[in-house]
Amino acid sequence: MNKSVPTTPYLDQKPGTSGLRKKVPVFQQPNYAENFIQSIFDSLEGYQGKCLVIGGDGRYYNREVIQKAIKMAAANGFGKVMVGKGGILSTPAASHIIRKYKAFGGIILSASHNPGGPTEDFGIKYNINNGGPAPEKITDAMYARSKTIDSYKIADFADVNLDRIGKDELPGGMILSVIDPVEDYAALMEELFDFGAIRNLISLGFRIAFDGMSAVTGPYAKEIFENRLGAPLGSVRNFMPLPDFGGHHPDPNPVHCKELFDEMMGDDAPDFGAASDGDGDRNLIIGRGIFVTPSDSLAILAANANLAPGYSGGLAGIARSMPTSGAADRVAEKRGIGMYETPTGWKFFGNLLDAGMATICGEESSGTGSSHVREKDGLWAVLLWLNILAVRGESVADIVTQHWQTYGRNYYSRHDYEGLDTDAANGLVDNLRSQLSTLPGKNFGSLTVEKADDFAYHDPIDKSVSEHQGVRVLFAGGSRVVFRLSGTGTSGATLRVYIERYEPDSTRHNIETQEALADLIAAAESIASIRERTGRDAPTVIT
Ligand code: VG1
Ligand code: CO
Where is the Alpha-D-phosphohexomutase alpha/beta/alpha domain (predicted)? Predict the structure, then answer.
């Protein structure tokens, strides 16, 4: 019935910012996925007889790995698996299902915003019983185990039917529960937001355009925006999840959502444009004629969250990843609530949320979320925006400019250099680290370096320390440049340069972002010698 299959380790199964991500052909090597799934189970304790949630973003290879994971869960002694119909669960929905049904944990199959298809990306990550990504202690254990693994356990029953909702007892006794991927999540959104107010706004002619990017949020967005909130048919576009996302890069930024972006900047723009990524945890927010940077969005949502029923009692605190702009800090300061700065990646927010220290969290990479789940949540952010717009009765542009008037504007941009030679990228970062002690006091044009460091995070709850989380160069007056290498890519290295300047003067809030940041961009180049070290004249993507 259950087999123990001998295997040999792969040495490259180190989880990155958000799980293990590799090209599909890497995952298709013999026992590759099995090795990693067994390494996950071997790093956990006490799951016998318990429930495991399994789902993914529907990308190429999703169903195959789900079948493997179900059979391996059975052989390893789980009592039950809950799987989204068709193998579909958005990342935030999976987080909610784990919490709602008190599952032991969950396996989410996704490479998020990375492209999908036979030669593109796939990924596996494990979430713990609070619904959030496994902390570093567990991901380190998985990696260690993957380097010594010599066998895995798998049940040898036939593939299960993922397309029929219902419960089944599988040979060997494990219960398989195939659930509607949308229902529980949509119900949670109805609890948090004033659907009546949003429905009313839409019925008065407020037009929304949501781009599902042929990824996992399509079915969720159709149900919520069109069925429950009454948005006209067609408000949700690209709503069919496709294994290759229609050949697109499902990263909701103005570059990869260009069509929507251009439409929102055009004459006949809808009132509100939004999109999400491959697995549904990111968001893009565009008002008529105005793109809202994710860092501003976090600050504005935090400042106005009390207008939504789920947050009417106010926020306990706000947390943001270190490279995210300081716009949210100003809201926290004004409200007298806690502000926490964590390394990049949602796994660092879990403890703060569990301890009730933070209510809203966000990242500059289009991730915003709250204590309702333990992942960032794309549709949640869109709905909170809609709830705020419905209550305030103002446009996105008005809300953003008023926010800047009240708090000042944090001009912000991220420059990504993708597909770099790994050695060149590592050399660039090493060189930055070697300058940390000599940079303070140096001038770059009119900018003076006040402080330079390599960000380290001391978790206030479990006291763990995470080092080397990004090189920060802080200038007098509050401007800064941050450098770090991506931990989600699957080929070569990606350098991310995060650039920020604070401008309190509202007569200077209408400068084009790259222009407002020009001297910092030049300083970043002089400090890091990006051109010389990478051979690149310009970033691949500017957001
Ligand atoms: C990127 C983002 C980070 C985000 C991570 C996962 O990581 O910068 O903020 O948490 O992706 O997002 P990195 O290491 O490439 O910079 V998702 O939506 O891809 O799960
Ligand atoms: Co994602």
Answer: 13-152, 184-286, 295-407
What pLDDT, on a 0 to 100 scale, did the predictor assign at position 328? 98
Q: Are 92 and 379 contacting, i.e. CB atoms less than 8 angstroms apart? A: yes
* Domain spanning 409-542, CATH class: alpha beta
Ligand 1 centre and the CA of 16: distance in Å?
A: 9
Strands 208-211 and 236-237, bridge-based pairing: parallel
Ligand nearest to the CA of 215: 2
Active site residue 112: yes
Question: Can you give 40-75 as a three-state secondary structure string?
Answer: HHHCCCCCCCCEEEEEECCCCCHHHHHHHHHHHHHH
Q: Considering only CA atoms, which residue is closest to atom 17 of ligand 1?
A: 112
What are the tens digits of pLDDT across the range 270-292? Answer: 999 999 999 999 999 999 999 99
**Angle (nearest 5°) at CA 311 between 308 and 316:** 150
Q: What distance in angstroms lies between residue 179's CA and the mean position of ligand 1's atoms?
A: 28
> Is residue 348 lining ligand 1, measured as CB closer than 6 Å?
no
Q: Can you tell me which atom of ligand 1 is nearest the CA of 16?
A: 14
Q: How does pLDDT run across 49-82, given as a tens digit for each residue?
A: 999 999 999 999 999 999 999 999 999 999 999 9
- Spatial distance between the Cα atoms of 244 and 332, rounded to a whole number of angstroms: 41
Instruction: Write down the domain spans for the chain.
Output: 2-180, 184-407, 409-542
Residues 85-144 have pLDDT tens digits of 999 999 999 999 999 999 999 999 999 999 999 999 999 999 999 999 999 999 999 999
What does the H/E/C string look like for 160-210?
A: CCCCCCEEEECCCCCEEEEECCCHHHHHHHHHHCCHHHHHHHHHCCCCEEE
Least Cα distance to 22 among 94, 105, 110 occurs for 110
Cβ of 281 closer than 6 Å to ligand 1, yes or no, is: yes
Q: Is the CB of 359 under 6 A from ligand 1?
A: no
* DSSP-assigned states of every residue in 1-14: -EEEEE----TT--
Ligand 1 atom nearest to CA at 489: 15
- Residue from 18, 95, 112, 366 carrying the catalytic annotation: 112
pLDDT at 450 over 90: yes
Ligand 1 atom closest to Cα of 17?
A: 14
Give dist(CA 130, CA 134) in Å, integer. 9
Query: Structurally, what CATH architecture does the domain formed by 2-180 represent?
Result: 3-Layer(aba) Sandwich (3.40)
Closest Cα to atom 8 of ligand 1: 365
183-192 helix and 378-392 helix, angle to the nearest 10 degrees: 30
Tens-digit pLDDT profile for residues 206-217: 999 999 999 999
Residue 18 Cα, ligand 2 centroid: separation in angstroms?
9
Nearest to 379 by CA among 254, 162, 208, 265: 208
Same fold across 2-180 and 184-407:
yes
pLDDT, tens digit, for every residue of 483-522?
999 988 888 899 999 999 999 999 999 999 999 999 999 9
> Separation of 252 CA from ligand 1 center, angstroms?
12
Pocket test for ligand 1, best of 488, 491, 541 (most atoms within 8 A of CB): 488
